[in-house]
Amino acid sequence: MKKNLQINFAAILLFLGVNIIFSQQVSINNNIPLQSLIENNLANGCVEISNVSSSINGSSDGFTSYGAFQRSGSNFPLENGIVLSTGNASSGGNTSNGNELSEGSRSWGSDSDIESFIGLGTMANATVIEFDFVSLTDMIQFNYVLASEEYFANFPCNAFDGFVFLIRETSSTGPYQNIAVVPGGSDPVTVGNIHDAIPTQCAASNDQYFDGYGFGDTNYNGRTTVLTAGTTVLPNVQYHVKLVVAESPDLTQPHPLSDTSVFIEANTFTELDLGDDINTCSGSVTLNGEIQNPLASYAWFRDNILISGETNPTLTTSTSGLYRVEISINGNNCIIQDEVNVTIDTELAANPISNFYLCDNDNNGLETFDLSTKNTDVENAVQNLPINYSITYYTSTIDRDTPANNITSPIISSGQTIYVRVEDLNTGCLIYGEFDLIVNPLPIVTQPSSLDVCDNDNIPDSSTEIDLSQKDNQITGSNPDLFVTYHFTPMDANSGLNPISQPYVNTNPTETLYVRVANNTTGCVISSGLTLTINVTNGNTGIVRNTQYIDACDSDHDGYYDNFDLTSVLNDILNGETGFLPPTYHTSQADAESGSSPIANPGNYANTDQDEQVIYLRLEDNTTGCLAIIPIEIHTNLLLTGTNIPATGFAFCDEDDDGSVDVYLNTLENVIANGLPNVSVTYYETEANRDANTMPIDTSNPYVLTSSVTVYLRIENGSCTELSEVLLRINPVVTFSDINPIPYCDNDDDGFTTVDFNSFNDIITAGTPDFNVRYFLNPTDADNGTNQLPQYYDTSSGTFYARIESNITPCYTVNDFQLEVIPAPTVMQPADQYYCNDNNSSVRNIRLQDLIDNNSIVIDPTNLIIEFFDNQTDADNFDVNNPSNNLDKQSYDATTQTIYIRVESTDATACYNTTSFNIVVNTNPDIIPISPYQICVDAGTSDADFYMRDKDLEILNGQFDKTVRYFRDVLMTDEIDKNLAYNSNGAETIYVRVENISDLTCYKEASFLLEIGTNPNYNSNFTNFPPDCQNEALLRTFDLEAKRQEIATGSTNALDIQFYLDENDAIIKANNSLPDLYDSQELQGQFYTRIENTANGCFIIEEVRFNTFPKPVFQTATIDPVCDTDHDGNTYFDLTNALFLVDNIRFGGVTYTYYLDDILSMQIPPNQINSYPVSGTTTIYVQVETDTGCTDSIPLLLQVNLPPLINTIDNISDCINPTNTYDLSQIDDIVVNNTNDVTISYYESSNDALNNTGAYNGKIFNYPSAGSFPIHVRVEDNNNGCPIFTSFNLEINPNPLSGTTPNLIYCDDDFDTSNRLEFNLSDNDAVILGGQNPNDYSVYYYRNDVNNAEDDRNRLDLPYLATNGETIYARIENNSTGCFSVTQFQTIINPLPVIPLNDIESVCINDLPRTLSADTGNSGDTYLWWTGETTPTIEVDLSDLSPDRWVEVTTASPQSCSYRREFDLIQSVQATIEATATADFTDPNTITVTVSGIGDYQYILDNGEPQDSNVFTNVSLGPHIVTIIDLNGCEPIETDVFVIDIPKFVTPNNDRYFDTWHIVGIERLPGTLVYIYNRYGKLLKTLHHTSIGWDGTFNGQNMPADDYWFSADIIHNGESFNIKGHFALKR
């Protein structure tokens, strides 16, 4: 409990008028140069400031940590001044920020002076400002507030963020004086030195100077009250000031902690203080205005009248009044002044004393009151408590005034007034007060009957929501002043703790709850013996409660059906259950619950809602009366109304722009079914196929969509079939042209502006309709559609990405564009223009051009167009090419208004800037009737201080250009200073004069009354909420109703008590008061409590503070497994090695406790923590507890691991290699049977293996030469990290020698394409051994890969079938050591000569003699024929014919490979064509060729492929060439053949192909006539055999494309016959 505000009625009106202001924050400007910051925002012109500097601040982290602040309409306690911060200064205000302020890095630095004065160690993020000044007075004094994020949870117990105000004479080298100290002592001002009590954590520290939490006017969690830093100084002497704020670091954290700021109010550095107002019984008082400046002159005033002759620094007076001293300094224009109210009297009144309330616990109407307990209340009510005083109590004013019969012991009373007398024992001054004794009765209550409830919800489990409040009226007898709460235990009911939240969900079918009843007015409580028994009867658990569906399958599809049988689903719902009253059916849930308006004939119901309707079935248990309400959806056509068939169809994007999309129709079935059971969908390409239920689309394969297609649907569910259709749409991805750049005008000249992205839409889409455009900073966001930029975005020129989306389809494309922000012309703000009209006219004629001529708008108007307007819209929309709505610059009739100026560039950009100024045309004020000015005071107070300024808002009533003056007399001669307190008993008339600000002769006069009201009385000793931990949801629930009852205890007024989060909401009584049970996630703060006397509207605002401790949140708990090196499963854990990740904690301050069970009942003894024995892997449980007592727990797995199993290793032998290295990884499989889950490493020594240091890199062992080397092995399990060790000797043996091996060269034995030949590779053995003993060494041969030889795999068998040029690897191996060397050679196969002769060669009798050629084409080859000839060619004739001819060819040296080619020499002859025959006028046409001769012949038609058959089929009409070739080599022979037939179409388009129609080959059919008819039998053309054919015309007109008929009288080979048919005319 902290703050008590007494608000008068006029202030209420003020707050109601401006409540929005109080949600604002202080404004902070951190862009002010340092010199100006101190000169203009901390001091004023009356003080000389010099040498301003800042050696440490946030600039190292890229921001400014100091600045100027303004209250800016918020409720911050300081008006303006400077702010120093440990973070970014501007983050402390301007806009609301709910995130923790923790800015800056450790590299920022600190200051040794603040660390010395605070004395708690190293600090961080200091901001230092230093300067020199010269004071005019003997005192300086500054008000300041320390605000910090450290005011959070229990953080103040550890934090020492603080502020020092250091001062010394500039010429001094001595220590600084810190004048920023906790009042009444020398402790520095830190978070740790000023904070509330945090129970269980730390006691309060100077909490009277802690203002509270979460005010909202800054972004800090809490702050101090306004503190004062002051000291005496020597006038006219220069002093050095050093201001420092710094924060306390948590060295366990990587960054500095939460930020802190100090707000210092602006001051003149010329402090003068006459003290508080004086109320005294003394005969006189002395006022002291001494400033110890020899250049000072003094003038004293009483009630604003100069006191003649009083020019001394002090004034002694015996007269009451308002006193003011004005001090002027020689050589300085500043006036220093202060004032004080002096009241001199012998009897004074105390402030109101709260009443004394007791509850009548024994119901006899009497209670015993110990009046000595009221002494503290009396002392607090005395304004200036004397040093020596006495307090006495009386039952009457006569006894008090006498004094006599004072009360000295507790008194028994039923209620009375007690009169208080406080006497100053030194002066005899008397102070009077009074209060009432009030005995309040206990609430009158009735024991409630049991609360019988049915579990009617959809989960019948004997647990349901119960409204306990339905028993309140029975318990209280409907008394509205009584408040009932329900509790789980009698103790909670007695204490009021843990009230049960409503609605209550029971746990057991029968429960007993405990009742507490409190009187909201008196606070008296009764709970003993009051209980409430709850009996919950379970609903039926066997019935089916899911929504049921009824489908009429209505054939006329009109949406209505007359014969729904609602009872058809009853058996499915009952599911065999019985014992219900007759079921009823209802059209609404409410009717079903109440049982009203049942459907009369549920077996034959006609729906009233078209297509579908919900009916509610009511089932009432015949025994228990419990209900079940089951919804029934009735559909006229369920498969149409319950399914999902989009009216616009399904759309698919052609993302690869190939014109097609694969659609999987089977995936659409669930979409269409829309959750309905047993629904199947069949798709058809045509409506006819669907209706006939034939040719469904195969949905197992994708349906290729190349254009928008309607598919037809057959929807079935086993009992009904519905037909429908849906459109499948393929949508192309539309592309748009790039638009670069897009110019955009800045609204000022800084090149940075707010762009309206929507204004680019038509530019981006070129006005294409049905597209939406969204904008992004990068292409990835544009493609994903994430992090979209807002419509209005602050930016300079740059690149942006437009995502262009179709409004019809899901398709989109992304275009980038360059935005060019063009600065607007630079303008100045013209001064406002004021005019006053004597004739009360509100219009004034002015010349606007003057503002241009005198350069009030721009410095140089050249190339600028300047126009004036009476609204911003016209100024923004002005078109220089079509001017409208611009004002006459030469003569304009102005009223009180704003004039808007548009300054536009004449260049191509046409960018413009606007500014404005006000024209004020004064008129006589308008005064409405003024309401009385009421101030609320405590009981017993007869007067009050009125501040007349509080009436300004009401009187002015929106007249911004007027001022209000107040007077005591009707003649307006005795003026009241409206900014000073005006004391009155309320029965007084105040006279008002309202004047124009710029013309005091324009005024009106009025008056109003002053009134006094009484504040509410209440229990002012209520308590704050005690600290508590967050619940599992990281919230805390506050019982505000209980707090309301506590506050109302003992009040004699009718109170309205409401709680708010914002003080100003409480003041204006906003409609956002908090509920009785309020869940808050805030960790500290206060509730602003409005306590209102409903009789007169007077109210008081109290604070109820709370502090909630963060609940630690265990995220993870891990501990490294332990290796069981002896494989027995038993080992020990050091639990202090466990690693915990706990959120929501800070500054350490946590303890961990270990348990065997998850309910944390069996704690592991502390003496086992460092060596906890386990037998195999097990789980224990860890509880974390903060120093605030908040806890969380988590399981911790203790994993016992075994090392790997290894094998015994014998010595390992190997042969020396060229790199003198050995790859030890080949030993891995020897060390263990399975290397998958282990890491094996090798070392020079056992110590290295044990310490896992110096392992052979890459498992490669380097040796100098052959020899024996010890190797040590470490094998570690990859899964658990457990190691085991072994060792072996590595024996390195020398390799045998191998010589250079020549290639093996053989001649091929055939002409196969494999180019393979069998080689005896052992021919090279002796060369390879090179003289080494063949008994000691072996030679083996390998192919393809040297690895085969090195790995001794795939040895070759001898002899070996090798290919030409194949590389053969030879391995010479020591038979004892296995060491080897590898050499290589190639197998060379020299080819046989290729002789170009066939197995059979012919001699054509038509062409003798025949030349035979065996020429290989290779020079150097030699030839031998059977004839003995040795030339490459010979000539033969018929005499050489024989089957056994040969020729032998030998290749040139060095190959010298020979081959004999044997062949038969036969005779042949050219073919003779005997006849050719064609099958004309047939379909298909054929050609048959008859030949004679002894050759082997083949036939070719028109240079086609040769064929063995002499018949050609499917021959096209017209001329052809037939060729006969002899396969034995004789020359081919050709003949011409013609096929006569009739074309099937004509295309008369002059392309020279089928431009006319006639029988092909008609010229070979002389005498033939052809007749052409249309389809109706009309003769169109007669063609002779000499005609070129029909060109598709009749009488010169083109005939249409159609079928035409012909009749041909053919004469062919002497025979006549007729052919009829038709052909097509195509155009």
Automatic annotation (TrEMBL):
<protein>
    <submittedName>
        <fullName>Gliding motility-associated-like protein</fullName>
    </submittedName>
</protein>
<feature type="compositionally biased region" description="Low complexity">
    <location>
        <begin position="87"/>
        <end position="105"/>
    </location>
</feature>
<dbReference type="Pfam" id="PF13585">
    <property type="entry name" value="CHU_C"/>
</dbReference>
<dbReference type="InterPro" id="IPR049804">
    <property type="entry name" value="Choice_anch_L"/>
</dbReference>
<feature type="region of interest" description="Disordered">
    <location>
        <begin position="87"/>
        <end position="109"/>
    </location>
</feature>
<dbReference type="InterPro" id="IPR026341">
    <property type="entry name" value="T9SS_type_B"/>
</dbReference>
<feature type="region of interest" description="Disordered">
    <location>
        <begin position="585"/>
        <end position="605"/>
    </location>
</feature>
